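S.,

Sequence below, as promised.
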Amino acid sequence: MQVFRRSDRSPVAEWWRTVDKGMIATAFALLCLGLVLSLAAGPEAARRIGQADPYHFVYRQVVFAGLAVAVMLTLSLLSPVWVRRLAVLVFLVSFGLMTAVLLAGHEAKGAQRWIRVGGSTFQPSEMIKPALIVISAWLLALRGLYPKGPLAMSAFSFYAVTVGLLLLQPDVGQAVLLTGAFLIVFFVLGLPWKWALGFLVGGVAMGSGLYLLLPHVRRRVDSFLNPTEYDTYQIDKAREAIQHGGVFGVGPGEGDVKAALPDAHTDFIFAVAGEEFGLIACAGLAICFAFISIRGILMASRNPDLYERAAGVGLFALFGLQAAINMSVNLSLMPPKGMTLPLVSSGGSSLLGTALTLGFALALTRRRPDTLISVLRTS
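The prediction came back faster than expected:
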């Protein structure tokens, strides 16, 4: 079906012809699955915190899902130059908010990661991740034009201060995720062996330091390595729920894990899906995440522009890694990270942060005429 005439050169018509509609459709499918799972887990979560309206989290999910769609589609209209400019603005604002979080943020479960806005909380670290990836890719791509400039060190400095703020909150899971995506950007643009060695040594040193200095990190690692000697209630319940669901699940609303785990509507929504809708739902979620991530990385990797290539690969890797970490935790393959499932878990900050990531990524992977000509010339 032809939506726009070939003679139509309006910005929206050009966007429709150049954007990857398969990835947008898959993102919509994930958002819809998130709404269904919010109906399953939201009422129990509302009851637990004393909300009079059992559909409190469901209504919130609908509102933020709508905002996420608007953000993702609007950002996908941008040119690569405006993606970079907006990323700088988002980074500066988010960095300021993350600094404010340390001074007067909302504390929950031993971590200070949120700013209270009215009756809700906002997590600025969700916004700074895609912004940092875009800025890092841009700075590292400029090394070809300015080989003697301190561009690699500048990108690393932005990364280091951001991870430093995350660790002060503390939010080790997001720091690990951001480190993985940053390294992928560095690798795509040609990671020198000296930098690779430095990252390896630094990573080992940082991991050892976190293990020794942060009791909750040490407890999670030890409980994962020696589950019989520690309390592993949450990951045990999540794994058991997925096993209980079998192939087809126990049926919508019939699961027990949402009443057993306080974070069933956020960190452990994958377990809710497995118990109530079965292995089929888990496989469907995994396929959707793999489709967006792999397709996006392959499309971005063919882009002849270094900045667009590295930023696109890094953003799709950020999206895919977060999904993989969340699902691995639910399957007891990794220690708990306190990380949401993108587009599916309940939470406004998570939805908007993911929309920012995919919006930037879709904008950078649009099939522009100049990109197509360059690809054909090099093929």
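The beta strands are 106-108, 111-117, 120-122.

Coffee later?
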